[in-house]
Specification:
CATH superfamily of one domain in chain A: Aldehyde oxidase/xanthine dehydrogenase, a/b hammerhead
Number of helices of chain A: 18
Low-confidence stretches of chain B: none
Distance between the termini of chain B: 54 Å
Radius of gyration of chain A: 27 Å
CATH class of one domain in chain A: Alpha Beta
Number of helices of chain B: 11
Structural class of chain A: alpha+beta
Helix content of chain A: 25-40%
CATH architecture of one domain in chain A: Alpha-Beta Complex
Number of strands of chain A: 29
CATH topology of one domain in chain A: Aldehyde Oxidoreductase, domain 3
Strand content of chain B: 15-25%
Shape of chain B: globular
Oligomer: heterodimer
Strand order of the largest sheet of chain A: 3-7-1-14-11-12-13
Largest interface: A-B, 27 and 22 residues
Largest sheet of chain B: 5 strands, antiparallel
Mean pLDDT of chain A: 97
Strand content of chain A: 15-25%
Strand order of the largest sheet of chain B: 4-5-10-6-7
Structural class of chain B: alpha+beta
Number of strands of chain B: 14
Radius of gyration of chain B: 19 Å
């Protein structure tokens, strides 16, 4: 029985945050710091014919004005296609055309407004289907020459940034064997991440050694360091990335955004640091979005509901530059088959450049998008066949030891339990409140599976100082989900100390070891395993020291909450007393831990199948929603969401519950309210008054249910949470609307106007 | 973060001093009360006043009181939150408290003022339809003295009103409601709070001794360039009873009297359709409040 795993330990960063002491990137203040502002493109697609920065240079207080010609570097973690600052060409409204560093932000803004640009407009394209047309304007003529991983195959001479396919079995045979074949198309829209803390970064250049120091709330400090080093031709040990607390990311802080601009400026300020904070308007129009997508799926099914074949054709809206799109859309495409056993599969996924704001990683990494299509179609199939939607899912869903599409045997599959418990909590199959006036009630359910980026590495260092106090050095970023607290609990459990006494400083790529990123719901599992390994070593050494000081066999000693006991004797000493005797003149013990699942038997796939599709662990989630639709206004009110998540062993129930609740809120918001209003690629609603997010007033009763299918390789059985939580909300709400009024919305967001229009066609 | 452009700033202690400053500065001066709208538009660069005249140091402009002659006088600096929780308002004009509860968020209502909501003259102003059906007037004071402008004739277009240069709204006055009358405001947004009205409809109904409609007033937000009255629907209701089909017909007429626009918030057709839905709901609710009052 564990002491600290499974307990709602209060967050380590809680006190610091509620008292306003926590330092976020926007709070970073350095001596001699300059402030940045940028001039952004007003054109969706144009050549820069003339760029006159003299007006900006003449403003008193301006230190540097930088254009793409001054700093002609490009970056991109997957495809190196994005200039730090536009180089003779702009590809979306909002692209940085020139940047200014000045003594104050107001001066920088004033100066940026004085830069004159002459554009020659180029034909622009805003819809990925149109961008696929033979005569569509091309965004990246030189695409074939961009450095990129061989995984990301493009089609030169087109806007297809990447194309990926997958085949298993034979879908034509499958369709021929099916009793019915359904072919449906769905659309999912782009949405903003809207973190509370907008994108921000501070950079300082060292004229002496040519290196850079960057302060950032990015979710992957070591990867940002690598991307910057590769872009600038520097070794990684000349690019230091310091993490602050992060005021939310949700995937949007997973690439170089504000970092790129301040790095470019810092090269020209003689060593003075430069800070940039995105305004909310910039955050909503020139940061990153979720990829919009057209998702066409064709599913063959037997009369009894058995799924026999599925083919899919996916077209993803990339926006102007690759960012993490190639991988997001690949992971998404490989999940279009849902958490279901289907013998015959085929998918083609194309990621297509358009002249719009860049799309990037967004909570769920592509899975959110495909879950919308997969689950909405499951409901439609259930309805067409006259089968209960829960029963249809239970009939086909993965259970323990089923194989994923590449043949990986799946372990710790708690999917069935999530379906059953979410359904029970929402009252599935029990009578609903009767219609009252214009109000109609309905219930819907949807499920999802999500893997984690595999194989990836996490390392950590644990220090026990001369007084026995413990510090955990990790590059896992505290993005707000409680990562540091969860890791401290794992360390505390393993070592035998109180987690609230463990120090977990924010990371520094020169001082905290590599970890892949606080992404892909991977920290608890991967970093947790690294911490557990380092913790076991530290514990062993502490007990050895104790044995030496207490003159007994360390094998007879154990430690709980920092108190050391001897078998058959009882408590002997505290870690502090033992360490002060061991280190009278100072000292410490240091242990390293690392974890990477590469080579694990658990990842083994079928021969000839992509091994990279195997996941270190699989997460499952089911959301069930009850809604009330006003048939006269088309307004949907979500009354209750039951969200059952198989997260493996729960490390901290309260943090886990908060993840689930937060995701449900995000899901409701982007299903019913959030939407970019665009005019030729320009975001019209770039304020929080017009970009509608759900407020506390819109929230339903949320019941978070934790299903604990313990993972054989997870730390204390833990898997992960966070990403899958948002995916099933939209299809669950859409299903509930259908149940209420008989109207099926297939394109997100679900607006009152769409509901009214649909009702007029098919009055209920 | 967007920075405000430089501007001068004054805090007059009296109304007379405020008017003098406004006259001296000319049209680029702006009066500041809650600032929940003005400062946002200044940040967006939509307005660039050379001088802000903060009215909040002037004493007595935030009173909500019942004058001896009857009715209600609401000082221009009364916050929306104050209206929302005023016992006097709740007792005599519950529709105003109801409308106040729709405006912005609790924190915005704590700052935003009634004078600001009326003076901004947005067609979407949440307080205005209810004030219009209650026959409210604006009390304005300028260099040439004090005058009363019926709210019905106050609005001239989006953001435009009958105020003369350097004239300040000092209060909104509402006459006593007739006995046997009721009023209600219903509005539609995309979310439950912090939202601009896609459509808002206020209705008031006054009955005669026989139970027929002696007077009906319907006012609508976000349905045209100014807050609109549905005069055709009002005329239709007058003299008749309160049968559901009559209210529905009036709502249909009201929708026909609007000229909403399509914008990024909603399309014109949807807005027009919603006027009909909301006008009926407002009328039905007004009947209910009347029944409750009796």
């Amino acid at each position: 029985m564990e002491t600290w795993i499974g307990r709602s330990v209060p967050r380590l960063d809680g006190r610091e945050k509620v008292t306003g002491q926590a330092v976020y990137t926007v709070d970073v203040e350095l001596p001699n710091m300059l402030h940045a502002a940028v001039l952004r493109s007003t054109r969706p697609h144009a050549r820069i014919v003339d760029l006159d920065v003299s007006g900006a240079q003449s403003v008193p207080g301006v230190k540097a004005v930088v254009t793409g010609r001054d700093f002609p570097y490009t970056h991109g973690g997957m495809i190196k296609d994005q200039p730090f600052i536009a180089f003779d060409r702009v590809r979306y409204v909002g692209e940085v055309v020139a940047a200014v560093a000045a003594e104050t932000e107001a001066i920088a803004q004033e100066a940026a407004a004085r830069i004159r640009v002459r554009y020659e407009d180029l034909a622009a394209v805003f819809d990925p289907k149109e961008a696929l047309a033979a005569d569509a304007p091309i965004l990246h003529e030189g695409m074939a020459d961009y450095p990129h991983s061989p995984l990301y195959e493009n089609i030169p001479g087109t806007n297809v940034c990447t194309i990926r396919t997958f085949t298993k079995g034979d879908v034509q045979t499958g369709f021929a064997e099916a009793d019915a074949v359904y072919d449906d198309e769905f659309y999912i829209h782009a949405v903003a991440h809207t973190p509370m803390e907008t994108h921000a970064a501070v950079a300082q250049h060292s004229p002496a050694d040519g290196g850079y120091t960057v302060w950032s709330s990015s979710d992957g400090p070591h990867r940002r360091s690598k991307e910057l080093a590769e872009a600038l031709g520097l070794p990684v040990n000349k690019v230091r990335v310091l993490s602050t607390y992060s005021g939310g990311g949700f995937g949007g802080k997973g690439t170089l955004v504000a970092e790129a601009t301040v790095v470019a400026l810092a090269a020209f300020t003689g060593g003075r640091p430069v800070k940039m904070i995105f305004s909310r308007e910039e955050e909503l129009s020139a940061a990153q979005t979720r990829h919009a997508a057209y998702l066409r799926i064709k599913t063959g099914v037997k009369k009894d509901g058995t799924l026999v074949a599925r083919s899919a054709d996916l077209i993803w809206d990339k926006g102007a530059y690759a960012s993490k799109g190639p991988d997001v859309t690949y992971r998404g495409a490989m999940t279009i088959f849902g958490p279901y056993r289907i013998p015959n599969l085929e998918v083609r996924s194309r990621l297509v450049y358009t002249n719009k704001q860049i799309a990037g990683a967004y909570r769920g990494y592509g899975v959110t998008q495909v879950t919308w299509a997969c689950e909405a179609q499951m409901d439609m199939i259930a309805q067409r066949l006259g089968i209960d939607p829960v029963a249809l899912r239970l009939k086909n869903c993965y259970v323990e030891n089923d194989t994923f599409i590449n043949g990986q045997v799946m372990k710790a599959v708690g999917l069935t339990e999530t379906l059953q418990r979410a359904a029970r909590e929402i009252g599935w199959g029990t009578p609903k409140a009767a219609a009252s006036g214009p109000l109609r009630r309905g219930r819907g359910i949807a499920t999802t599976l999500k893997g984690t980026a595999t194989p990836t590495e996490s390392q950590c260092v644990i220090i026990a100082a001369m007084d026995g106090s413990v510090t955990l050095l990790t590059s896992a970023v505290e993005v707000g989900a409680g990562q540091h607290t969860a890791l401290a609990q794992i360390a505390a459990e393993t070592i035998g100390v109180d987690p609230t006494t463990i120090n977990v400083p924010n990371s520094d790529t020169f001082n905290t070891p590599y970890q892949f990123g606080t992404t892909s719901s991977r920290v608890t599992f991967h970093d947790g395993n690294a911490v557990r390994r380092a913790g076991e070593r530290i514990r062993k050494r502490i007990l050895e020291i104790a044995g030496e000081i207490l003159q007994t066999d360390p094998g007879r000693l154990s430690m709980v909450n920092g108190r050391i006991s001897e078998e058959g004797v009882g408590e002997r000493a505290g870690i502090k007393e033992v360490f002060s005797q061991k280190f009278p003149r100072g000292g410490m013990i240091v242990e390293h831990g690392s974890y990477c699942p590469a080579g694990s038997e658990l990842l083994k796939a079928d021969p000839g199948m992509p091994q990279g599709l195997s996941s270190a662990f699989w997460m499952f989630a089911t959301h069930a929603a009850e809604v009330e639709v006003d048939v006269e206004t088309g307004i949907v009110k979500v009354l209750k969401v039951a969200a059952a998540h198989d997260v493996g062993r729960v490390v901290n129930p309260q943090l886990c519950e908060q993840q689930i609740e937060g995701s449900v809120v995000m899901g409701i918001s982007n299903t019913l309210m959030e939407e970019f209003k665009l005019d030729r690629g320009r975001v019209l609603n770039n304020t929080l008054a017009d970009y509608k997010l759900a407020t506390m007033m819109d929230l339903p009763e949320i019941v978070a249910i934790m299903v604990e299918a313990g993972h054989p390789e997870g730390p204390y059985g833990a898997k992960g949470a966070g990403e899958p939580a948002v995916a099933p909300t939209a299809p669950a709400i859409a299903g509930a609307i259908f149940d209420a009024i008989g109207v099926r919305i297939t394109d997100l967001p679900i607006t009152p106007e769409k509901i009214r229009a649909a009702l007029k066609k098919a009055p209920c | 973060m967007k920075r405000l452009k430089p501007f001068a700033y004054r805090e007059p202690k009296t109304l007379r001093e405020a008017i003098r400053i406004l006259v001296g500065e000319g049209p680029r001066a702006a009066t500041l009360a809650g600032g929940t709208d003005l400062l946002v538009r200044m940040k967006q660069g939509v307005v660039t006043p050379s001088l802000l005249v903060n009215l909040k140091r002037i004493k007595g402009l935030d009173r909500i009181q019942r004058p001896k002659a009857g009715g209600l006088s609401i000082g221009t600096l009364s916050t929306i939150a104050a209206l929302e929780r005023s016992a006097l308002v709740a007792k005599r004009y519950p529709v105003l408290a109801q409308a106040a509860g729709f405006l912005g968020s609790p924190s915005i209502r704590q700052l935003a003022t009634l004078g600001g909501n009326v003076g901004r003259s947005s067609p979407a102003a949440d307080m205005v339809p209810s004030l219009v059906v209650l026959k409210a007037s604006v009390i304005a004071e300028g260099a040439s003295g004090k005058r009363e402008i019926p709210l019905d004739t106050f609005f001239k277009g989006p953001g435009q009103n009958a105020l003369a240069p350097a004239e300040i709204i000092t209060a909104i006055v509402v006459p006593d409601a007739a006995p046997s009358s009721g009023a209600a405001y219903v509005r539609l947004g995309r979310r439950e709070g912090m939202d601009c009205a896609l459509v808002g409809v206020a209705a008031s109904l006054t009955l005669d001794g026989a139970g027929s409609v002696a007077e009906a007033r319907l006012a609508m937000a976000s349905c045209g360039p100014v807050p609109l009255r549905a005069r055709g629907a009002e005329a239709f209701l007058s003299g008749g009873g309160l049968a559901e089909e009559r209210l529905r017909e009036a709502a249909r007429l009201a929708a026909g009297e609007t000229s909403p626009i399509s914008d990024m918030r909603a399309c014109a057709d949807y807005r027009r359709e919603m006027v009909e839905v909301l006008a009926y709901r407002a009328l039905a609710a007004a009947v209910q409040t009347d029944r409750k009052a009796r």
